[in-house]
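Response to reviewer comment R2.3. The reviewers asked that we include at least one raw input/output pair. We reproduce the pair for Ammonium transporter AmtB-like domain-containing protein here without editing.
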Amino acid sequence: MNLKVRLPVFVLVMEVVMIALYAVFVTYDDNANAKMQNNETNPMDNSVYRDYPFFADVQVMIFIGFGCLLAFFRYYGFSGMVFNFLTATFTIQWAILIQGFFQFYHDGKIYLGVVNLVNAEFACAVVLISFGAVLGKTGPVQLLVLALLEVPIFSVTEWVVLKYIRINDAGGSILIHLFACYFGLGVTFVLYRPGLSKGHAKEITSYHSDILSVMGTLFLWVFWPSFNSALTLKGDDQHRAILHTFIGLCSSTITAFALSAVFNKRGKLTMADIQNVTLAGGVTVGASVDMMISPVAAYCLGIMGCTACFFGYRYLSPFLARHMKIQDQCGIHNLHGLTGLISSTAGICAILLATEETYGPSMYQIFAHRAPPEGDPRLLELQMQIPGLKPGLGRSAQEQALYQLAAIFSTIAAATVGGLITGFVMKLPFMASPSDGDCFDDELFFDMPSDFNMIPFFKLLSQSAVFQIFHA
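Raw output as returned:
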């Protein structure tokens, strides 16, 4: 039984399961339900006008940004882009169901609106980041199984952290970047291929594949402010998130160019640095992106994230591959792991420094768990200043910082264990895993055009005897 049977059977089974679950559980939320509209309803108050722009921006990141970015291998461009497309579409529809049970489930129904789609896209981003660790070494069935298992594990972890530990993580540095990174590392550890320890003949890039990958970087770069600000409180919080993300991305980009030139033996730029390291600032501002950290702090975080990411690619990734059996194909530990740890640490510092003098009464909206609990006279005073302020847990800054720290360790632990388990499932014989020799090769999965293995004409000409004679 080959891919011709395995992939269609898997897809058919999952479609039947999802049709049944959607039919039983999923319905429209109030903003999409015609029965909830009346003569007094103003159509322009519909949440679609508030949420859809962010949904559209993140969708561009998911399908075009990640897709192009993963197409940097010379002989694996089809697979990088198309398997990203396949995995993303499956993940989003699966995440709508799984996350719906934890976040939007009431009265026996999952109430579907655009905000559900945004949340599902974040779950999809988690899967695609993890995908980067095993790029080129897995088949489409394995990737769908990765998504099938990672989404529930991620959703449970997210639910536990947000409901019981209760943290601030507007940009997802802990729950998206750290989780995705260590889940992916767990998977790639189990799928370790000793035959590829010294590389693969087709594990190379080309002029055109690098250009396509940089296009992906540019799409991610441009829309990252929407990613970091999509789920923040509307108003000044969201405004700060956009500003901080843009500043962090700018500082990490120019730092990446400088480091790339300095550490290149010939003083030239390396495309891998431009494709990946320039994005580090978007991650490092994530945990504190909606806080009053100041623009200069966002600038410094961008530099710090870029520096850690750059040296991670240069020294840490080879070390992990040689000594810890972690073949991190896209270097997700550098772009999402190291920067996620820096971002989480910065978030803790921002929480410890937050005071009413800096934030005013709105501090208890941003740090909702520090608001006074129900029955506290101070809560009534604050509610007079901020109507609608909800009771909190009365945590101090130090207590909230400790909970943030607990969330970091618990998220990494859950992701690592989940990744190891998923890796063992993906390693089962019937998962249609490519052999070592077939890795990084589109021909295993696609009908390729006739020019796939052809040497470009200008290169062929330059090597010809006639050309050499005329230029002797």
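The longest helix spans residues 397-426. The chain has one domain: 3-34+48-444. Further pairs are available on request from the corresponding author.
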